[in-house]
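Pair request: fold both.
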Amino acid sequence: MSRLMFFVLVMTLQACMIASDPLPSQSPEETAGILERAKQAYRETKAKVLNVGSTVADFAGMYYEEHFKQTADSYVEWVKGSASSLWERLKNRVPTS
């Protein structure tokens, strides 16, 4: 995830540098303004990526609920029943003294 954030930051900085008009002389105040714009663009991009990530996670959860959960639940119940019946048979065969 940190590689992705670094990549997004580099791309955002490049886009800001291309979009900004070149000034004849850059004072420290102007450089600070560019950095502030880059930080703001990074924050906005990060927020958008996190929003998309949560949307994808919600979609995956909904897809699981609709398509896999019904099938998986029946198998889980079958395994629970088989395990408990096996345990009962084992308890009956092994003498407890």
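--- second member of the pair ---
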Amino acid sequence: MDGDIFGELGNSTQVDSRLLQVFQKSLLQAQDILNQNRLLINEINQNHESKMPDNLSRNVGLIRELNSNIRRVVDLYADLSSSFAKSREASSEGDSSGTLKSDGKVNQKRIRSS
């Protein structure tokens, strides 16, 4: 994939494949939520245009769901940013002992002196 951020990272630094899996999973989750938001927005617009009281009342719940979804996407991107920053810190220390836990967070192992 040309222009793929992970491909570019892989060329310049050694990136843990587990980190890439976590990023991919989080980005796919965000994309699924954004797709759901598109459908919600379309339904909200249709309800608004109909001006029918029942449809307008339904929009209240749909807008709450939309807001909740937006918060979830923001949280996913914040977690991604944090995980990426931690992985970069681990790799910039020149220490290959930084590992990625299943929750996407970097786990630092202490190296003992000989």
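Observation on the second member. Strands lie at 99-100, 106-107.
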